[in-house]
Amino acid sequence: MILRRNPVMSAIALIANFCCIALLYLLLQAQLLAVLQIVIYTGAIMVLVIFVIMLLNLGDEERLTERYDLKKIVGAVIVFGFLLEMLYLFVFSDFSEGPALHSDATNIGTVENIGRALFGKFLLPFEVTSLLLLAAIIGAVILAKRKI
């Protein structure tokens, strides 16, 4: 993702990364976190990133085209091998036992536990984050209006 010259291709690679993280949450039996990962990061955050990329109006598009060379081909072969290993792991492994982190591992990703942690222990960071996001949105609107 960071080695791409084209920012749109980089954003698409980041979307794929977010989807893989959601799959990891599903493997940990945290369905709510997986859905939130898809909805919040892959949906909302990446729409904002693509919107900012389009606002930048990058000119010289010929310079941003991707070229295929030996490094990219070797990287693609390594990724394909890794995906084959993961497929083998999922087909021939027994996930019926679940994660063995601690005895209450099945309640980690539930709505009740996440809500209790978010609005209890982490209430102040949650509210500070919401205020920072609001300030960022207001700043983006002001900067966008200034250019018009």
Notes on the protein architecture:
This protein is an all-alpha fold and about 150 residues long. The chain has a domain at about 110-148. It is about 70% helix and about 0% strand.
Sequence-ordered SSE layout with sheet pairings:
Blueprint: H1 7-27, H2 31-56, H3 70-92, H4 111-121, H5 123-147
Helix pairs in contact: 1-2
Low-confidence stretches: none
Nearest-integer average pLDDT:
77
CA-to-CA gap between the ends?
A: 31 Å
Helix/strand structural class: mainly alpha
Strand content: under 5%
What is the tally of beta strands?
0
Helix run count: 5
- Secondary-structure element string: HHHHH
Rg, rounded, reads 20 Å
Short description:
This protein has 148 residues and is an all-alpha fold.
List keywords for this structure.
148 residues; mainly alpha; flat
